[in-house]
Amino acid sequence: MADRPQNAREPKPLKPPTKTADPIISQIGDFRRYQLFFFFIIMLCKFGTGWHTLGHIFLAAPTPLSCTTTNVTDPCSDECSETEFDTSVFKSTIITEWDLTCDKKQLASISQSLVMLGILVGSLVFGMLADRFGRRPAFLLSCFLQLFSGLIVCVSPYFWFYCIFRFLVAVATAGTMTTSFVLLMEIVGPKKREVVAILYQLPFNIGHASLAVFAYFIREWRWYQFSITIFSAVFVIYIWLVPESPRWLFTTGRLDKSIKILEKIAKCNRAPTETIRPEIEAAYATLAARQPVKKGTMLDLFRTPYLRIKTICMANNWLVVCMVYYGTAQYVSKLGGDIFISNLIAAVVGIPGTCLCVIMTKYLGRKKTLLLSNGCSAVGLLLLAALSTQGEVVQVACATIGLFGASVTFPNVYLYGAELFPTVVRSSGVGLCSMIGRVGSIVAPLICDLDAYALWIAPLIFGLFSVLSMVGTIFIPETRGTLLPETLEDGENFGRKKKAVA
């Protein structure tokens, strides 16, 4: 037998995944080479969520209006016949494009509320599409709808036309958020799922921060909209790089397709493939033979007293964090000073906030983290209300503290909510909380408009709601390191103090 060449490399031995009760993770491992690659690829779509949901900050950037009529200073008075916008900072915005001033001033905020309504609608629509037709088609549809509707916004001839297509962009953006998150979570094992779920929020924070950079170099709203939209063209790579969820294929009985995808992932992860087919077929036979569990409904969240309290308190946390984060982000642009630096500073703090959430939830638990982050928001916003007459530096610093707290809260409520509700109503519980949260996002721009009466009103409202959220959190039990509730009875008893036996 000929000797093996000295430079020939021995093939690396296969590393069988640890067998678990989860048939999918048992074949591909918790978090290996493929999951890491998929994590970075799928994160690309998350940048757009920050760009499109908060792009309004610069699309409708403050543009001073003055009256050029002799001896008239108020541009909104009947005596003023000619007005002029100050275009020294922004050459054009939707404010200058459609004269959204005076009695039409609130239309700009209404357009942003429609965006948040689109996020609500998109979450529901694409969630149902993903469950019915598969994660991949719903994901691809949302990606390309975001691209094409976003480009149409750039050429909007009328304000109502702009609102309709910004609404569609938001619907698509919600679709990319929900379906991409599900795609990722369904191939990541429980050991890394917590960290991956939180770090997946980072591109949103980076997207928010980069808006100031886009706006600094692009001062015309149509080209600015184009710049934050055209990136979506890269999503064409998803046609080849994003397969259908093998877990969804497995649970819907499409075993051959599920097995083929699992074999490809296993090869990439250097895991054995010969056992995948028999083990998946055996797991599905067990699943099919199992007695169907009674499905819960959203109403079951309110049937029993303790589960009802937990549902209301968790939904309130979602309402507050959406209101505070989006409202404060928009409010910063109204504080005066350099709008680019102010928004960049306020947005950048979200990055360490999300990273800090990983550490805090791991070592302090979900409940203490939520109390501390809501407290941080409350302190910053109430200080902002009290110091609303101070200089821009003080105001931006206070707003940044409030926004930092919300950036820690945001990923935590996703994790906390998913762990709090029992399995039979977990999707309904998280879906309900998400809907309530979007209500907070919708009203946030309208609350910011109260600055027309006094600058302290909006931060006072946001701050008081943060305090209310802290109070509600007291009634929510800790979920770190506990067995998650499965049935409605578990959901009612979960977190109750056990009575001492005499």
Describe, in short, the structure shown.
With 502 residues, the protein is mainly alpha-helical. Helices cover 66% and strands 1% of the residues.
Supply the key terms.
mainly alpha; MFS_sugar_transport-like; Growth Hormone, Chain: A; transmembrane; transmembrane helix; 502 residues
Topology:
Blueprint: H1 25-28, H2 33-54, H3 56-59, E1 65-67, E2 83-85, H4 94-98, H5 106-133, H6 135-153, H7 159-185, H8 190-199, H9 202-217, H10 221-229, H11 238-241, H12 246-251, H13 255-268, H14 276-289, H15 305-332, H16 339-348, H17 350-363, H18 366-386, H19 392-420, H20 426-448, H21 457-473, H22 488-493
Antiparallel strand pairs: 1-2
Helix pairs in contact: 2-7, 2-9, 5-6, 5-7, 5-20, 6-7, 6-10, 8-17, 8-19, 9-16, 9-17, 13-14, 15-19, 15-20, 15-21, 16-19, 17-18, 17-19, 18-19, 18-21, 19-20
How would you explain this protein's 3D organization?
- It is a single chain.
- The N and C termini lie far apart (79 Å).
- With 502 residues, the protein is mainly α.
- The protein is built from 22 helices and two strands.
- It folds into two domains: 274 residues, Up-down Bundle (Growth Hormone, Chain: A), CATH 1.20.1250.20; 204 residues, Growth Hormone, Chain: A, CATH 1.20.1250.20.
Number of domains: 2
State the CATH architecture of the largest domain.
Answer: Up-down Bundle
Task: Give the CATH H-level superfamily of the largest domain.
Answer: MFS general substrate transporter like domains
Percent range for β-strand residues: under 5%
Number of helices: 22
| Quaternary structure state of the chains depicted | single chain
Helix coverage percent of residues? 55-70%
What profile does the largest beta sheet have? 2 strands, antiparallel
Q: What string gives the helices and strands in order?
A: HHHEEHHHHHHHHHHHHHHHHHHH
Q: Total strand count, please?
A: 2
CATH overall fold name of the largest domain: Growth Hormone, Chain: A
Alpha-beta classification: mainly alpha
Widest sheet: strand ordering: 1-2
Overall shape: it is: globular
Termini separation comes to 79 Å
Low-confidence stretches: none
Summarize model confidence as the mean pLDDT: 87
Q: Report Rg.
A: 25 Å
Using the coordinates above, name the CATH class of the largest domain.
Mainly Alpha
Keywords: Membrane, Transmembrane, Transmembrane helix
Membrane topology: Multi-pass membrane protein
Pfam family, one: Sugar_tr
InterPro entries: MFS_dom, MFS_sugar_transport-like, MFS_trans_sf
